Structure prediction request, 262 residues.
Amino acid sequence: MPAWDTVEAVQQVYPTTDAVVDSDPVDVYHGDLRPAPGTRPWVLMNMIASVDGATAVDGVSEGLGGPADRRMLGTLRGLADVILVGAETVRAEDYRLPRLPDDRVAVLRATSGRPPRPRLAVVSASLSLDTGSALFTSAESSDQPPLVYTSTAASADRRSALARVAELVDCGDGERVDLRRVLADLHDRGAAVVLAEGGPSLNQQLVAAGLVDELNLTVSPLLAGGTAARILSGPDLAAPVRLRLDRVLADDGFLFCRYLFA
Ligand SMILES: NC(=O)c1ccc[n+]([C@@H]2O[C@H](COP(=O)([O-])OP(=O)(O)OC[C@H]3O[C@@H](n4cnc5c(N)ncnc54)[C@H](OP(=O)(O)O)[C@@H]3O)[C@@H](O)[C@H]2O)c1
Prediction:
């Protein structure tokens, strides 16, 4: 047992003991460096969870969020070239293209030569995706069609239906899409930052394969109970992955924790 006078001080991050600094999250997050790690884009995983770790209430994440969280989501989407998402999240949440920014994010994207909003990329082996859903029908002229990463095993009927509304890319020969190949393809298309928006089973695979560089975890000030998945869901990792806490912001009771990998 250390003597009391040798115990190291802890850091109080909220509320701050100095004057509270109010920052625009756009300034904070758009000022971070995200260098491409080799032949794939920087992968930023963003998830919201309740204090007890639930990632959904009644099967969707909406009940965990609020205006502060939506503002952060808009900020992160603003710095992404591509949003990568698993097909079950698309089905459960009736996924749509991100809102077109009408604020400083729009100006930042335009001045850096990016389209107004990121491109959507969905991972699906089954291709059970509704071609009439808003994800595929609400594009503006500035949008490229969503990418759908699948495998050669997908049914020919579904392939031809989806090919009318999306760009299909084969990145697997059996039931599984190879996520390394997905990220290599996105890199070849010029994507520098990929925002991985879940769900937990896609997250687990990305982390297990060592393909994530940054985690933004929003802790919602709720206890949800229930059996909803945690932010990673799937087989055990070979070993727990050590993260480095880079920053914590707070707004309206939500904590926005930025962690970096390795
Ligand atoms: N709290 C949050 O921030 C947050 C964020 C996102 C989602 N969610 C919640 O998470 C839940 C959905 O997550 P989930 O973990 O069940 O599913 P998911 O990760 O969104 O999607 C899983 C599906 O993606 C496809 N997929 C993933 N990896 C694949 C691979 N390597 N090869 C081929 N296909 C692959 C498969 O689609 P097919 O079945 O089409 O083959 C699979 O069934 C929902 O309740 C949603 O509301 C929460």
Residues 38-261 form a domain with the Dihydrofolate Reductase, subunit A fold (CATH 3.40.430.10). Strands lie at 42-50, 82-86, 119-123, 147-150, 167-170, 193-196, 214-220, 243-251, 254-261. The mean pLDDT is 93.
